[in-house]
C-alpha cells in the first residue's frame, strides 16, 4: 500500500496507538481473544446501572434535540438490551477464529512452500449512527478477527458510547491485551470523522453503517478502502406463472415482518399476465397489515385504493410500511427496472418457469438473488455466519452478508532454502 | 451499491455501452470467450505492419517530446513483441474460466438451497501508462473473466492503442460478442481519466497500473473502488544467522535479475552481528554487477566505497541498479524499519533461526513474506496463476499477485419453494 500521507493532525496519536495494538492482536491466540470477549460480557452485565445512566443522558438530550421516535428507540438501552449485548459478545466468542486459516497452498516446482494465509486487516474504522449496539458488536467482531478498531459513533449516543468503550477497554486490558485495540474518536467530533476517512495508510478498511446519506458521504469522501453496506431498494418480481399463495405469503413476509431493515421489500413488480390473478390477493394482505400502496396507473386500475406513485418512489428505501408497485410487460422489463433502481442488495422472483428463474438469477446484478422465497433471508445469521458485520452492497472484497472472514485479508508466505529466480 | 450519480458528462455513452456489453459477457459461454481470444491472437499476428506503423508514429512523437530511454523501450513494439502479445492472449484462453465457480454452498434448515457463485465484476476500468502490452493483456483478461473493460492508456501510446483496440473490437465482434466489451477513452484525454475515477455506479472496479505517482493520483482522486497495484519498496533482512552463500545469491538475484520491476530489492537490512561476516561478500557481488550502494554510516565503515544514503533513500523505489543498505541492531529494529518504509509488497528474511523466521512471517505486514528465497518470486506466473493482472499492495479484495479469479466478485443465490422468515 502507499505509505501514510496523513499530515500531523489530531487523530495521528490515536491511529498510531491503534496500529501498535493491531500488531499485538494479529498474533494473539484465539483463547486470549475469547477471554477478552468473556471479560467484556461480564463487565456489561456488571455495569448495567452505569450504562443506563449514561444512556438516559443521551435520551434526554435526544428528546430535547427533536430526534424522531425511531432514532430514540435505536438509541435506547434497558436491562434486557444490555443483557442481549452481552449475549451477542459471547456468541462471537463461540465463532471460529478466521485468523491463520490456510486458504490455498502449493509447493512450487523449485520446492518453495507457498501458502496463502488469512490475516487480520490491521486497523478497521467504523463510522455509524446513534446505535450503541454497534459499538459493542463491532468491538467484539474486530477483536475476534484480530483487528484494532477505531469507532466514530453518532454524537447522539456520545455518553453511552464513552461508557461502553471504557468498559470494553478495561476488559481487554484485564486479560493483557492493549486498551488501544478499541478506541473511540467521538471526542474529535465531525473533524475526526473527516480525518478518519482520509487516513490512508493508517486505516486499512473503513465500514460505514447507517443511513444512505451517511454511506454516500463516506463513499465519496474517503480515500481509504471502504466496504459499503446496507442500503436496500429491494424488489420482488411476480412472474406470469407465480404461485398465488407463495406470492401472497412471500410479499407479506418481505414487507411486513420487519419493515425497518435493509432486506425488507420496497418495490413489487408484477407481470401484466399475472396481475389480475395474483395482485388483488397480494395487495389485500398488505393493506390488512397497514401497508400504504404507492402504485402506477395500471396497478391503480386494478386496485383503486392505492395512491399514485411518484417518480421518486421507485428509488426510495422506505424502511416503513410503504411499498411501490408497478406492472411490467415482461421479464426483460422487470430486469431492466431492477437494474435501473436497485441498490444491488436483494431481489426475488416468484415463478414456476425454470428458464425465467435462471435468467433472473443470471441477469440481476445484486448481492443476493432469490427464487421463490422471502427477501428477508439475506442475513448473516440465516446464512449460518453466527454474527454479521453488515451486508455489503459493493462487489469488491465482500458481497452480501459479511461474517468474521470478511474482516480479514490474506498474506502470501514463501518458505525457501536459498532459491533464486532463473 | 449506490445508484449512479454521474451527471451528464462525456463518458456516459461509453460507460453505458460498457454496462450493456457486460450483461452479454456475464453469460457468455467459455467457448465463445475463448473463440474471441483466438480471433484477437489471429488478428494481432495478421496486422503486424499496421501495428508497427502506428507504433513508429508514437515512438517518433515520444522522442520529440523527450521520453526517457526506459519509457521508449516500454512503448516500442517489433515483430517479436507483437507475436509475444498474441501468444499471451492464447495463454489466457487456456486458463480456467473463473465465472460460475461455486465458492461455498449449503442447504438452510428451511430447505432453501444457498450457494455463493463467482460472477464477473461487470465493468472494469484500467488507467495505465505508455505500455501497449497492457492494452492487449487487460482486454484479454477482462474478456476471459466475463468483464467489459474501459481502458485509459498513456497519451504517448495513443496511436498504437487506437489500432490495438480497434483490432480487438473487430475480433470480439467477429465471434458475435459486443464491440463495447473493450473500449478506450484515450480520445477524451485527461478529463476522461478524471471522469472514469469518479464514475461510481458505472465502474465496478478501477485498476491503476504504472508509476507510484499515477497510482497515488488514482487512489486519492477516485470514488469508485480501486485495486492498488505495484509499487514496491522491497526489503531483505540478513539475520544474525544468515547463510552467507544464500545471502550473496538471494540479494544479487533480488536486485540484479530484473531491476525495473516491482518485486526487485530496494533496501537491504543487516543484523549488526552478521555484518562483518556476510556484508562484504554480498556488496562485492552487487558492485561487480554495477549496483550503486547507498549506505548508512555503519555500513560505510565496513564498506567505504559505498555512497552515503539520504533520508529519502529509505522510501525510494529505485527500479534501477541502486540499493540502500543499513545495519540494524535486532530483528525488532528490522521489522520496525520495514513497517515504516515498506509499501507492503514483498519482504524476505535470510536466517537459520526458526523463531526469527516465524516472527518475521507474522509481524511483517506485506502481501508476500519470504524466508530464504529471492523477492523476485512474488509473481503470478511463479505462483502458477498463468497470467497476472498486477500485484495488489492493498488488503481489500486481493493481496499480492492477481489472477483471473481476482477479476471477479461473487453473488449469493437462494433457491426456495415458498419459504418465509419466521
From TrEMBL, chains A, B:
Its EC number is 1.2.1.41. One of its GO terms (molecular function) is glutamate-5-semialdehyde dehydrogenase activity. InterPro entries: Ald_DH/histidinol_DH (IPR016161), Ald_DH_C (IPR016163), Ald_DH_N (IPR016162), Aldehyde_DH_dom (IPR015590), G-glutamylP_reductase_CS (IPR020593), Glu-5-SA_DH (IPR012134), GPR_dom (IPR000965). The keyword Amino-acid biosynthesis applies. Signal peptide: none annotated. Residues 103-289, 324-412 form the Aldehyde dehydrogenase domain. Pfam families: Aldedh (PF00171). GO terms for biological process: L-proline biosynthetic process. It catalyses: L-glutamate 5-semialdehyde + phosphate + NADP(+) = L-glutamyl 5-phosphate + NADPH + H(+). One of its GO terms (cellular component) is cytoplasm. Catalyzes the NADPH-dependent reduction of L-glutamate 5-phosphate into L-glutamate 5-semialdehyde and phosphate. The product spontaneously undergoes cyclization to form 1-pyrroline-5-carboxylate. Belongs to the gamma-glutamyl phosphate reductase family. This is Gamma-glutamyl phosphate reductase. It comes from Cryobacterium psychrophilum.
Amino acid at each position: 500500500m502507499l505509505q501514510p500521507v496523513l499530515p500531523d493532525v489530531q487523530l495521528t496519536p490515536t491511529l498510531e496507538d491503534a496500529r501498535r495494538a493491531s500488531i499485538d492482536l494479529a498474533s494473539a491466540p484465539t483463547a486470549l481473544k475469547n477471554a477478552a470477549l468473556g471479560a467484556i460480557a461480564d463487565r456489561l452485565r456488571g455495569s448495567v446501572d452505569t450504562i443506563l445512566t449514561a444512556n438516559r443522558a443521551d435520551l434526554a438530550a435526544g428528546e430535547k434535540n427533536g430526534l424522531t421516535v425511531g432514532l430514540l428507540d435505536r438509541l435506547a438501552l434497558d436491562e434486557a438490551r444490555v443483557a442481549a449485548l452481552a449475549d451477542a459478545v459471547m456468541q462471537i466468542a463461540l465463532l471460529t477464529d478466521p485468523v491463520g486459516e490456510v486458504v490455498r497452498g502449493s509447493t512450487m516446482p523449485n520446492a518453495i512452500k507457498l501458502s496463502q494465509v488469512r490475516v487480520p486487516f490491521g486497523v478497521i474504522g467504523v463510522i455509524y449512527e446513534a446505535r450503541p449496539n454497534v459499538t459493542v458488536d463491532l468491538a467484539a467482531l474486530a477483536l475476534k478477527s484480530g483487528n484494532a478498531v477505531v469507532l466514530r459513533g453518532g454524537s447522539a449516543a456520545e455518553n453511552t458510547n464513552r461508557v461502553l468503550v471504557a468498559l470494553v477497554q478495561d476488559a481487554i486490558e484485564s486479560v493483557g491485551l492493549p486498551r488501544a485495540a478499541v478506541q473511540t474518536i467521538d471526542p474529535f467530533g465531525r473533524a475526526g470523522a473527516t480525518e478518519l476517512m482520509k487516513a490512508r495508510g493508517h486505516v486499512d478498511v473503513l465500514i460505514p453503517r447507517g443511513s444512505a446519506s451517511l454511506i454516500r458521504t463516506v463513499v465519496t469522501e474517503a480515500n481509504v478502502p471502504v466496504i459499503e453496506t446496507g442500503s436496500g431498494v429491494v424488489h420482488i418480481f411476480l412472474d406470469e406463472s407465480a404461485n398465488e399463495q407463495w406470492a401472497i405469503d412471500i410479499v407479506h413476509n418481505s414487507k411486513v415482518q420487519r419493515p425497518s431493515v435493509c432486506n425488507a421489500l420496497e418495490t413489487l413488480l408484477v407481470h401484466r399476465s399475472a396481475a389480475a390473478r395474483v395482485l388483488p390477493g397480494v395487495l389485500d394482505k398488505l393493506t390488512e397489515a397497514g401497508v400504504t400502496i404507492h402504485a402506477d396507473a395500471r396497478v391503480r386500475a386494478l386496485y383503486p385504493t392505492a395512491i399514485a406513485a411518484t417518480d421518486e418512489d421507485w428509488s426510495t428505501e422506505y424502511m416503513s410500511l410503504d411499498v411501490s408497485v408497478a406492472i411490467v410487460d415482461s421479464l426483460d422489463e422487470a430486469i431492466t427496472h431492477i437494474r435501473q433502481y436497485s441498490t444491488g442488495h436483494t431481489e426475488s422472483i416468484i415463478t414456476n418457469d425454470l428458464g425465467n428463474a435462471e435468467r433472473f438469477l443470471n441477469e440481476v446484478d445484486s448481492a443476493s438473488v432469490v427464487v421463490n422465497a422471502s427477501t428477508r433471508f439475506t442475513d448473516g445469521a440465516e446464512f449460518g455466519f453466527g454474527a454479521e458485520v453488515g451486508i455489503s452492497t459493493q462487489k469488491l472484497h465482500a458481497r452480501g452478508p459479511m461474517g468474521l472472514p470478511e474482516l480479514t485479508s490474506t498474506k502470501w508466505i514463501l518458505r525457501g532454502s536459498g532459491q533464486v529466480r532463473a
